[in-house]
Predict the 3D structure of the following.
Amino acid sequence: MRKTVLRNGVLIYVAWQDRKLAVIGDKGINEVVPSDFWDTTVEKMTVFFRQQKYADGVIQGIEEAGYQLKKYFPYYAGDKNELSNDISEG
């Protein structure tokens, strides 16, 4: 997460069995989003999780983070993805 040039990586951590959820931003994005942004994003995701709409909750988190990334770190021609988008299981 901390390997981007602009330090704007976002980690969405979901541990189903342990019932844990976290959304964490690196230094660059933390400096520009509201101080409660990550907590409110988790709260919005949790609303879906309580309804057992897990995919919708994850999508909500991705969309919330994506909106902020687009706002503060817009895409420019030639940009490349600096981080893997792989889902880690296990």
Summary: The chain has one domain: 10-72.
